[in-house]
Predict the structure.
Amino acid sequence: MSNAIKKLQIKIRPMQRDDIESIMAIESSVYGEHHWSKEGFETEIYTDIGNYYCLFDADKNKLIGYGGFWNILDEGHITTVAIDKQYQGMGLSEVLIQKFFEVGYRKEIKWFTLEVRVSNVAAFHLYKKYLFESCGVRPKYYQDTQEDALIMWTENIHNDKFKLNYEALKQKTTEKIEII
């Protein structure tokens, strides 16, 4: 009998209209009453610049997270990342970030950017791991609390330092999560 711990098995695929009901349940749980609308997700799925993905627990065939970014010229602007509260802390946000970079490499994106609440320390540290740097503040950006947002950017994702960091982090993720 093996003492090996079973890896979490997940599926990742482009977001579809049929996913929106499950997305809305996570959206309201994670973000409260100030969250994206169903119509907002529908628009994002079908826009030419949108790149949105869903994560599924492969054993339960349950949607457990989603995220996406806009591809504008040679920039990727991460617009949303959310993980079901039962699955937070397992590295699933990293799986989405890694997917964004994978798509970014294929689409010849050079930089990624995002906004993050100044109080969201966990997200800030995740983005720092992926070499995002804070380069400014959007005052009172979040309408629910009037909280400021940090503006974060990566360096060019095609440079050696970034690629080596990304590959090392991706390898660590595969040690605990299996994408099937």
User: Anything to note?
Assistant: Helices lie at 20-31, 38-46, 92-106, 121-129, 160-174. The first strand starts at residue 8 and ends at 14. Residues 139 and 148 are 5 Å apart (CA to CA). The chain is about 35% helix and 35% strand.
